[in-house]
Each structure stands twice: as structure tokens, then as C-alpha cells.
Amino acid sequence: MTNTTLTTSIPPSREEAIELTRNFLPTMSTTPTFGITGATGQLGRKVIASLSGRVAQQQIAAIVRDPAKATDLGVAARQGDYADRQGLEKAFAGLDSLLLISSSSLGTRQAEHENVIRAAQRAGVRRIVYTSLLHADRWGIAFAEDHLATERWLQSSGLDFTILRNGWYWENHTAGLAQALEHGGLVGGAGEARISWASRQDYANAAVAVLTQPDHAGKTYELAGDTAHSLQELAAETARQSGREFGYRNLQEAEHAAFLASVGLPPPLAAVLAEIDCRGIAKGVLAGQDRTLSALIGRPTTSLPTAVAAALNQ
Ligand SMILES: NC(=O)c1ccc[n+]([C@@H]2O[C@H](COP(=O)([O-])OP(=O)(O)OC[C@H]3O[C@@H](n4cnc5c(N)ncnc54)[C@H](OP(=O)(O)O)[C@@H]3O)[C@@H](O)[C@H]2O)c1
Fold first, then answer.
1. Residue 184 sits in which domain range?
2. Which one of 65, 73, 100, 104 would you pick to mutate in the ligand 1 pocket, going by the greatest count of ligand atoms within 8 A of its CB?
3. Residue partners of 206: CB distance under 8 A and separation at least 6
4. Same domain as 188, residue 114
5. Are 183 and 147 in a shared domain?
6. Among residues of the chain, what percentage have pLDDT more than 70?
7. Is 150's C-beta closer than 6 angstroms to any atom of ligand 1?
8. Are strands 97-100 and 76-79 parallel, antiparallel or unpaired?
9. From the CB of 108, is ligand 1 less than 6 Å away?
10. Shared domain check, 77 and 156
11. Is there a single domain that holds both residue 51 and residue 187?
12. How far apart are CA 188 and CA 278, in angstroms?
């Protein structure tokens, strides 16, 4: 493969892409060079699948807390719990780049993320890419503070870092659409705020782009869908596609927390989710300002009609 191949406009085959990556990425050993945490989660699985199309599977290590859940990933799994700094250090041995997918444990994740960063430093990892939160500095609630603290640790870590401030997944709202149709509508607390949703696959592709391309060190990217919509618009599109009556009902924070608890969420989690909607999203912090996400992935982000159709036709 020669350099001139890079100038062709024909997309390379998977084999050619792997060969190109072998030739142009700085780290060419046969040991894993990319570590993906949270690899058995919904975002992590998509990252592993996309990255496997870009680099040799032998160059990828899935960092997982339960290797039994990782047998179908197609890459080597290493056990690493965010709560166990020493275990993480072992799991990170030999890695060049690490994608830190933020923990889903809302109460403990600041300490967990610090463990990951300190372990990576000790293991000699060169670079961390971190999945943060869109406009993390504008939310003003504890949910966002976890991400800001992690960003600060990264910035002072001495490691190369890239911060991916991910916006909302479509799936947060569309995964329950079919069920919501049975109840006639969506319920939430974000009012008429605009949200620039994108799909998990969009964010996974962005992470893979940043992991496999040069020139992203030291950057913080606000990642969001190309077009912002309200929850009312999501409900209207659902009504249009389903041919059924479907609306959006907005609740005040206490009412919203009580509703979420009434459908089975533990009350502390219900309270946090209501706060996220009513004191965060309602302020408009999930509306994107630019098209950095689509620029990174080289295509438009997943649109409202596509997201609704995917949810209704599952
Ligand atoms: N932008 C958004 O709209 C949005 C929405 C929801 C969540 N998030 C954030 O983005 C992250 C990824 O999203 P997702 O949809 O992939 O969430 P997810 O499916 O819940 O995956 C979370 C991953 O974190 C792993 N994890 C949790 N605690 C851990 C620990 N102590 N040690 C090691 N791994 C641990 C889980 O491991 P197991 O597989 O073993 O459970 C799982 O792989 C979430 O964790 C959350 O921080 C963002």
C-alpha cells in the first residue's frame, strides 16, 4: 500500500482500512493498543464494533467489569472495575489509548473516574478520550459536576486527552416509545426546551473517529445532533408515523419525581432524573450550537423521523 492510495476518493475496503491504519498509526505492536471501558454497555458495544472495522481486532482490548458478558465482542476482554484502581492498572498494561466511557453509577462515579485516570497514568497510557456531557459547564447540578471534575483531572493529568461532551441519545426517549404509545403520550419535565438528539451509533462513530485520527489532543468537543427538537415535536412525529393520538405532558419537578417513582424507579433515582429534566434540560443545555458531531462522523446525524421509525419498527 503506497501513500498515493490515501488520495483516492474511493472508500477503502475493511481490509485496506486496516492495512492503512497499520501503516499510519504510530503504535504498531501486536498487543492491544486501544482500550475501551464500559465495553459491555450499549455505547461501548457500538464503539467496539465500529473500531473493529477500522483497526485489527488484536489492537483492541475491552475493559469490562464482567468478562463473562464480553464473550461475543470479538476482541480480548480484560477485567477492570472502576472501583478497583490496582485492578485497572493491570488491565491497562500496554495500552496506548483509552476510551473512558463514563460510569453509569451516578452516586460514585467521580471517584471511579479518578481511579481510571490515576490507573492509566501509572500504567503508562499515553492518551484518554472521555465521554462527558454536552455543555457540562452550563447545567449547574450535581449530575454535570461529575463530568466537570473528570474533565479537570484529565486536564491536569499530563496525559493527552480529548473530551467528547456527548449530548442526549435519541434512545433515551425512543426506547420506550412503543410502550408509551399504549399510554397515549410522553411525560417529562423539560418543558419546551430544545434538544439536539443524536443516536448512540452517531456518538460511537465520533469516538472511533477521534481514537483513530491525529490532531484531537487537548480538544473539547460539544457533540450534538444537527437539528434541535422539543419533546412536543418528538410526540407529534410519533403520532404522525403511528397514526395514533400521542402527545407530551409536562410535569413540575416534584410531580415528575413522584410519577417516575410510581412506575417503579427507586425514589432517589427518580429524584435525580426529575432534577436532570426540570433544572437541567429545561434550561436548554442540550441544544447544540454547531455541527461538530456530523463533521467528525462524516455524515448527518440521525434525524427525528429516522429515530422514531427505528423505535416503532423494532
Ligand atoms: N448521553 C446520554 O444520553 C447518556 C444516556 C445514558 C447514559 N449516559 C452515560 O454514558 C455512559 C454510556 O452510555 P450507555 O448507554 O452505554 O450506558 P450503559 O449501557 O448503562 O453502560 C454503562 C457501562 O458502564 C459500565 N460500568 C458501570 N459501572 C462500572 C464499574 N464500576 N466498573 C466498570 N464498568 C462499569 C457498565 O458495565 P456492565 O456492562 O458490567 O454493566 C456498562 O458497560 C453511561 O454509563 C452514562 O455515564 C449518557
1. 172-194+226-288+299-312
2. 104
3. 164, 221, 223, 293, 296, 297
4. no
5. no
6. 90
7. no
8. unpaired
9. no
10. yes
11. no
12. 8
Look at ligand 1, atom 12, and give the residue with the nearest C-alpha: 43
Tell me if 33 CB under 6 Å of ligand 1: no
pLDDT of 191-231, one tens digit each?
999 999 999 999 999 999 999 999 999 999 999 999 999 99
| Judgement on whether residues 179 and 156 belong to the same structural domain of the protein | no
Distances from the Cα of 31 to the Cα of 35, 80, 300, angstroms? 11, 18, 35
Question: Is residue 131 lining ligand 1, measured as CB closer than 6 Å?
Answer: yes
Three-class secondary structure of residue 140 per DSSP: coil
Report the predicted TM-score, pTM, of the whole model to 2 decimal places: 0.91
Domain-ending residue, one of 166, 181, 215:
166
Lowest mean pLDDT among 7-21, 46-60, 96-110, 132-146: 7-21
In a domain, 121, yes or no: yes
Note the pLDDT tens digit of each residue in 245-304: 999 999 999 999 999 999 999 999 999 999 999 999 999 999 998 999 999 999 999 999
- Is 162 found in the same domain as 19? yes
Ligand 1 center to residue 74 CA distance, Å?
Answer: 20
Does the beta carbon of 104 sit less than 6 angstroms from any atom of ligand 1? yes
pLDDT at 280: 96
